[in-house]
């Protein structure tokens, strides 16, 4: 569908449907309950089961289907999720959660503490890099009664209460997954969770249709009748859909950042960058430290010097963010600003490459390196081209390779890459969102968003562990400051930007961004005002 055709389609919003799927707002005047929210999922996720895949589209959509024990306010303080209350023992080793009564999965089966224990100790430990890094600290998990879950830790773990959002610890049905090959379970196509919305249909290449879970345990939720996530690969068509009202909400990279200034002026829309506090998206250029020349820190330092990150922010990301300085985002606790600076300096980059013996050939090229272009929209394509041009100036020839979402995830997670770019979340605490990318214990082939770069430093491992178990914030800061200084010197990856993603929404929409997990939240209270 080209832009002109999609514009015509947008004019029909609210008045007609295609293939039985409603367009626009289908809500009677004055109605406070009901209605259809049309939004976008881009790119189309490979699977909807968040326990098995943690790519952003899966998490955004899956947050309506799967829940966890807690949610978090904008200050990252815990709020009730599936758990209505929780207690922490004085020694910080025992955490007791009380579930809400009458929670059911979408197939009608009651959700109990046994499902929580199974999800945390079995399926997540085997398939979720971040969850494994956190829950490997458990001594045991118990279900003394159907509504009580008790976690006992081997040692104190300061951010443990921050580890139960829907993206980190989604609860799946034990009766469906126990004793099966998780990734080949036929129920994956049905995506059976306990959230306010359940899967009605998924037409590949077209849409994912969610409808109200009538057995939802929270009174009067969800407010909406249904949510339709539309697959619209073309960026211009996505913008037109928002502009014309065919969709009422966009998130993450649905709208290319170069469209933000224009769309921000439209009178029927509002834009916010709130709702990403928990994630603090951190974008970097990933280098496979296992292979030459990326296995030499001088090369990695040269890459940092060669990229004008301020220009990248201004020209490609239109100022939506700030230049990053290391592995910990400035939006996250325990950030250390006093680290080695890599100001834009092609001359320093060339000197380091010369020192390595990587001399330029007659064509000016020192080395050619394959680069997997992240398949997440035009902004990533433009950023990849910016990086290619930047590194070319110092003799590093990036060979851009296009790939789809599933292929990118497979190659990246299996270490079948030289360079790529990725955006990784911080999750409110370095022990949750940062350490997983760098500790040697999390080098796990086949698991996305683990330590895929292959970085290993015993001192960094030690500091991450001591910071995680320290009970004093001052002591944690001391450890995190020390490891940030070491890592910024060694440059396991080339940190680029802290991104502020825009959420555009129709002004009639209410309660879209109410917590620090933003559009990943359940949408149980979202309505048309």
UniProtKB/TrEMBL annotation:
An annotated GO cellular component of this protein is: outer membrane-bounded periplasmic space
Q: Where in the cell is it found?
A: Periplasm
One of the entry's Gene Ontology molecular-function terms is: peptide transmembrane transporter activity
Tell me which Gene Ontology terms the entry assigns under biological process.
Answer: peptide transport
Superkingdom to which the source organism belongs = Bacteria
Task: Give a Pfam family name.
Answer: SBP_bac_5
Which InterPro entries does the entry mention? Answer: Peptide/Ni-bd, SBP_5, SBP_5_dom
- What residue stretches are annotated with the Solute-binding protein family domain? 78-432
Q: Which UniProt keywords apply?
A: Signal
Please name the SUPFAM superfamilies in this protein's record: Periplasmic binding protein-like II
The family classification in the record reads:
Belongs to the bacterial solute-binding protein 5 family.
Q: What is this protein called?
A: Peptide/nickel transport system substrate-binding protein
């Amino acid at each position: 569908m080209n832009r002109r055709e999609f514009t015509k389609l947008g004019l029909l919003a609210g008045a007609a449907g295609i293939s039985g799927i409603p367009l626009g707002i289908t809500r009677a005047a004055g109605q406070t309950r009901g209605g259809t929210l049309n939004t976008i999922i881009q790119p189309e996720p490979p699977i909807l089961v968040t326990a098995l895949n943690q790519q952003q589209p899966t998490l955004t959509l899956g947050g309506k289907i799967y829940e966890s024990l807690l949610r978090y306010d904008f200050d990252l303080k815990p709020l009730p999720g599936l758990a209505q209350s929780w207690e922490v023992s004085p020694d910080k080793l025992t955490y007791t959660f009380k579930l809400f009564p009458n929670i059911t999965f979408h197939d009608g089966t009651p959700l109990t503490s046994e499902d929580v224990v199974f999800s945390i100790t079995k399926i997540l430990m085997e398939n979720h890099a971040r969850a494994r890094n956190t829950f490997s600290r458990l001594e045991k998990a118990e279900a003394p009664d159907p509504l009580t879950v008790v976690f006992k830790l081997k040692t104190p773990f300061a951010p443990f209460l921050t580890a139960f959002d829907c993206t980190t610890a989604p609860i799946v049905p034990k009766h469906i997954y126990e004793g099966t090959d998780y990734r080949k379970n036929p129920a994956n196509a049905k995506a059976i969770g306990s959230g306010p919305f359940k899967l009605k249909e998924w037409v590949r290449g077209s849409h994912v249709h969610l409808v109200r879970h009538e057995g939802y345990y929270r009174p009067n939720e969800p407010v909406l009748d249904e949510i339709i996530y539309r697959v619209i690969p073309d960026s211009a068509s996505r913008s037109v859909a928002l502009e014309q009202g065919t969709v009422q909400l966009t998130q993450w990279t649905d709208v290319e950042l170069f469209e933000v200034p224009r769309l921000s002026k439209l009178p029927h829309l509002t834009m916010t960058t709130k709702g990403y506090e928990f994630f603090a998206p951190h974008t970097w250029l990933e280098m496979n430290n296992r292979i030459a020349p990326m296995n030499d820190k001088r090369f990695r330092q040269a890459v940092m010097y060669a990229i004008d990150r301020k220009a990248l922010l201004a020209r490609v990301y239109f100022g939506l963010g700030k230049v990053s300085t290391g592995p910990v985002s400035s939006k996250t606790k325990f950030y250390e600003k006093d680290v080695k600076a890599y100001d834009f300096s092609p001359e320093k980059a060339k000197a380091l490459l010369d020192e390595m013996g990587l001399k330029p050939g007659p064509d000016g090229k020192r080395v050619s390196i394959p680069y997997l272009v992240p398949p997440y929209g035009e902004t990533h394509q433009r950023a990849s081209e910016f990086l290619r041009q930047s590194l070319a100036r110092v003799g590093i020839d990036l060979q851009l390779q296009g790939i789809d979402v599933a292929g990118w995830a497979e190659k990246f997670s299996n270490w079948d890459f030289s360079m790529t770019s990725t955006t990784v979340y911080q999750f409110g605490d370095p022990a949750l969102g940062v350490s997983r990318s760098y500790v040697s214990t999390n080098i796990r082939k086949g698991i996305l968003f683990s330590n895929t770069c292959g970085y290993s430093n015993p001192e960094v491992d030690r500091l991450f562990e001591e910071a995680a178990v320290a009970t004093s914030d001052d002591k944690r800061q001391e450890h995190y400051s020390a490891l940030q200084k070491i890592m910024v010197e060694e440059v396991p990856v080339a940190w680029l930007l802290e991104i502020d993603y825009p959420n555009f929404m129709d002004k009639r929409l209410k309660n879209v961004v109410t917590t620090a997990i933003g559009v990943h939240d359940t949408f149980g209270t979202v309505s048309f005002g």
